[in-house]
Structure formats: structure tokens, C-alpha cells
DNA sequence: CCCGCGAGTAGACAGCGTCTACGCCACCCT
DNA sequence: AGGGTGGCGTAGACGCTGTCTACTCGCGGG
């Protein structure tokens, strides 16, 4: 049995993932995905009642991919929580930069709060890893660990967002992204000690 | 002469601003804007060659509004740079929360890098104010002021983004937004001294 | 054997952005 | 004063989109 022929549903999602990685979010029309999957434009409707249901499934694949990468990073990184956090942050930003279309899709709020697809929950384990590391590396400040983790995540997300469309006016140096990331980590976790 | 009748161009932008504030970004179809402005669907074409040109003009109005609010905040806030920064941050987040649709529109990258509309430049004075304040309040760390300002802006932007779709898993308390903002400010600028 | 039903097809429909051909009215020039 | 001209908005067409519905085909069970 050919493992590639396992149902149209999976083929549609795969085609969508391929499409968004290759051509970006704007190319993700329902009809185009159906075309790439080799079926008529009405076929997806049996598995995905609406267009955003299909898009949500594709976005979930993106979250799964990101989670897998982060887990791999956590496996490869050393024991020091601070460097583990830095590696996690780098992975997050690299993912956003390398898969811009997918990253945008993953955080389209009209997908996130559409129905009970529980796309939001998909990002929760990721946050848990971050929060855990933050709790380990945290200096004894008065900021509670979950809040600190949230603030740091927001910072990472903002950096990804802002440099994705290259809008940071301080883009004088090619290595500004690296500097920005270090600044964020230093700010939230304290400067690196060596 | 009626000051309200000054050209279709302004009327279209005004209708668009009204529409995005009232119904959100998804309602901003070219034809709907034309309808609200009381003209046929082909009329906008004379002033805006394409749909995104019109959207960009609307987004620019949003940047102008935000800039005006920030300037007002700077006029009202006291002399202490730290509290001025806090007020600026609060204004930024309040704007994002109150005008979600407009905020999303303003940062749609397909508008930002579309042509020479220089939407990007519109946000530059805003950043200048932030960078200036950061330079004043900065502790003598090794992080250069522009980088620090960029990191802080990214943090604000990320907070706005993340809590806009309520995805922060730590939403246990209604006042988490406030805590998140304080955490970000404390992290980048050092804890408030009193 | 034939019935039924799951799965995908095909066509219709309204709405969209873009393009083009066409009126209309105001103004300027001789 | 009359006639041309050009700007401004209309109206319809085109191909695309998402959704809905009627249908066809093939396979398995009573």
C-alpha cells in the first residue's frame, strides 16, 4: 500500500503546507490547494467545511513543525538554562524568518479564534518549555516567572514580526538581528555572565 | 463652500478609516469602501490605481492618528523620562487594543513593502521619540541605545499582538496586561526606583 | 441483484479586484 | 457665443474567489 495515498484530507493539508512555504500566505486559495492536490474545487468541502478550517489545519502543521524544531534544539543544547533559552529563541526567530508565510498564517487571529479548532492550544506546550526555562534562569526579581516568560515571548514575537518586514529603522548593520535578540535576552534574563 | 465636499479622494480614505474602525480589516473591500463613499466601484481607481494603494492611504491615516496620540501623551506626561516612556508604551498598547482593525492594517507587510508609498517612513518619527527617551533613561549597559529602543519597541509590539488575540496562556488575571507591560519596561529599562 | 451510501465532480451564484469603453459636465479658446 | 477638450465618475465585462447544491460513479452488504 502506498503511504502517500492515505486519504485526500492529508493530501490537501500537505499541498497547502507546500504552497504556503513556497508562495506565501496569499497563494492559499481553496481552489488552488484543491488544484495542487489534483481534485476539483468542491472536494475539500467534505473534509473541511470552510476555507478557514483548511487553513487552520495547515497552520497546525506549522505549529507541529515549530514544536519539533524546538524539541530538537532542546535535545542538542547543553545543560545551562541560559544557553538553552538562547538556543530556543534563535530557533523561534529562524523559523519565522525561514518560513515567513507559514509564520504569518500561524498567527492570523481570524484563524486562531475561529471555532473550536483549538489552534491556540497548539502553541501552549511551546510556551511551557519557555516558561520552564525562564523559571530556572530567573534572577530573584519581583516579576513572577510566568509573566516574565510571557514578556520574553512577546519580545521574541515582536522581533520576528518587526524584522520580518524589515521595518526596524536601525537596520544599519547586517547583524542587527543578532544584536536585537541579545538585547532582549539580556534585558529579560540579565546580562550574560562569563 | 462645504468643507466636507473636498474631493472624492479624501472621502474614500475617510470612509475606509470609518469602516476599519467599525468592522475590522476584513470589511475593507474596495467596492464596499466605494459604496460607503457613495460612488461606483470604479471611481476609486482614478485616485488609487490599486486596492492596496487605497489601503495604504487608510493605514497612513492610522499612523497619523497614533502619532498624534503619542504627541499628546508626551505633552501631558511629566518631565521624568522613565514615566514618559511608560506613558508612551501605554498609549501604544491602548491604541492597538482600541483600534484593533486599524492596528492590524497598519502592520500588514503586504501593504508596507508595496511600492514607494513610504508607509514605513511614516512610523519613523514615532520610533525617534521612543529612541530619544530610551537614550535619556538608559543605564550604562553595553547595549547601544538604538538597539535597546528597537528591542523595547519589539516587546511592546509583541505584547500588543499577542494579547490582541488573547493567546497568552497566562491570562489568569484580568490585569495581566498591566503586569506584562511593567515587566517589559522593567526588563529593558531597569526596575522602577522610588 | 440491487440498493444505498460515501466520495468526488460539475455547475451555479454572489462578491471581489481590475480593465475598458462610454457619458457628462465644466471650462477655455477663438 | 459656440465648439472642442479633458477631467471625473458610471457601467459592464472578465476571471478569480468561497460556498452551496445537484449529480454521478463505484463499491460493499442485505
TrEMBL record, chains A, B:
Q: Which Pfam families match?
A: TetR_C_33 (PF13305), TetR_N (PF00440)
- Can you give the residue ranges of the HTH tetR-type domain? 6-66
Q: Mind listing the UniProt keywords for this protein, alphabetically? A: DNA-binding, Transcription, Transcription regulation
Q: Which residues bind DNA?
A: 29-48
Top-rank lineage group of the source organism: Bacteria
GO MF entries: DNA-binding transcription factor activity; transcription cis-regulatory region binding
In terms of SUPFAM superfamilies, this protein maps to: Homeodomain-like, Tetracyclin repressor-like, C-terminal domain
Is Cytoplasm there in the keyword field? no
Q: Does the keyword Transmembrane helix apply?
A: no
PANTHER family with a match to the protein in the record: HTH-TYPE TRANSCRIPTIONAL REGULATOR RUTR, TETR-FAMILY REGULATORY PROTEIN
Q: What is this protein called?
A: TetR family transcriptional regulator
Per the UniProt entry, what species is this protein from, by scientific name? Micromonospora arborensis
